[in-house]
Write a structure and sequence with these properties.
Elements (H helix, E strand, L loop, with lengths): L7 E4 L1 H4 L3 H9 L2 H11 L3 E12 L2 E9 L6 E10 L2 H13 L4 E8 L2 H13 L5 E12 L5 E8 L4 H7 L9 H18 L15 E5 L5 E8 L4 E8 L3 H9 L1 H8 L4 E3 L7 E8 L8 H31 L1
Parallel strand pairs: 4-5, 5-6
Antiparallel strand pairs: 1-6, 2-3, 3-4, 6-7, 8-9, 9-10, 10-12, 11-12
Helix pairs in contact: 7-10
Length: 321
């Protein structure tokens, strides 16, 4: 008996998103859809940092956000549910400069060849710290199913795929330590997923840290592994908001009582960032002991998420008043 197979059909974008700004931009700004877009291009977009129709002079960028990383690079996303044109090409450059963005994403229905070449030229001639992405969006359905979105990269920085694969800023072969880190985070993700965690995982990379959102764009949780000192850590990383660090430090006694542990409060006076850290011994090379390291990391990341998350959100609410 022959199997019964459905037929894949492409759906007109306007059947689902009638209005670009009112429908598509609002849809894309949701956490799960930014995760879909970010996963396609290899960037973690912090959903808590998202702003819709952010002002740039007399204009408004569709979406502005920050990368969910220690660098907190600025992101602008311009949407165009039609074929690319010169007007929108000029807009993305204007918005990028207005927001001092390092990651510029142009989401379109269809790209004209000259605009694809323009994005390629920008990536080849602008500094390596600024990246342009030209991405198409499609809708597909099978039979009578609900339409499903799909993002396709049309143009991206040269050798971007290799950089993402290695998870570093250089183009050399990943070291033994990097590969060990990647294996560790993959196994930790699998472990936590089997233990009903409240943590939301993103793409794993060969690096010494792994970040989790905290419900605020001002700070995030960072799990770390140190192969030189044979330690692992769980910390609150505050990229540039020293006032938040001082606010939390004023609550030191309360926070440490709620967590039932002493913390290492690092103001890091020489830079903009600061951190609040807890560390313990842990040898990354001892794979047999990984389950114990995973257990420690999951427990403390969830505690930090609950306790610090509450206090930081309260701080954000006070700041808005």
């Amino acid at each position: 008996m022959e199997p019964s197979l459905g037929k894949i059909e492409k759906v007109d974008l306007r059947e689902v998103w009638n209005h670009e700004a009112l429908d598509f931009t609002k849809w894309l700004a949701k956490k799960e859809n930014l995760l879909l877009l970010g996963g396609e291009i290899g960037i973690d977009i912090d959903p808590e940092s998202v702003k819709i129709e952010a002002e740039v002079g007399d204009f408004n960028v569709d979406i502005s956000a920050e990368e969910d990383s220690e660098e907190r690079r600025g992101i602008v996303i311009e949407n165009q549910l039609e074929q690319t044109n010169h007007d929108h090409l000029g807009k993305i450059i204007t918005y990028a400069s207005g927001h001092d963005a390092k990651i510029i994403i142009w989401v379109v229905e269809e790209a004209r060849e000259e605009h694809q070449r323009a994005i390629e030229w920008l990536n080849e001639n602008i500094g390596e710290d600024i990246t342009f992405f030209l991405v198409s969006v499609e809708l597909w359905r099978i039979g009578n199913s609900m339409p499903a979105p799909k993002f396709n990269i049309i143009s991206q920085p040269n050798r971007w795929a290799e950089i993402i694969k290695e998870g570093s800023d250089n183009l050399e072969e990943p070291s033994e330590t990097k590969l060990l880190q990647l294996d560790f985070w993959n196994k930790f993700k699998e472990y936590a997923g089997n233990n009903k965690t409240t943590l939301r995982f993103r793409r794993t990379r060969p690096q010494h840290w792994y970040n989790f959102a905290l419900g605020s764009s001002k700070a995030h949780i960072s799990l770390t592994v140190n192969t030189r000192d044979n330690t692992i850590g769980c910390e609150i990383y505050i990229s540039k908001f020293k006032n938040l660090f001082f606010e939390l430090q004023n609550k030191k006694e309360t926070l440490e009582k709620e967590l039932e542990t002493k913390l290492d409060w690092q103001e890091l006076k020489e830079g903009k960032a600061s951190r609040i850290k807890l560390a313990t011994l842990g040898d990354l090379r001892d794979k047999e002991n990984w389950p114990n390291l995973f257990k420690w990391m999951q427990e403390w990341a969830e505690k930090f998420q609950k306790v610090f998350g509450k206090h930081i959100r309260e701080s954000d609410l006070v700041a808005e008043l």
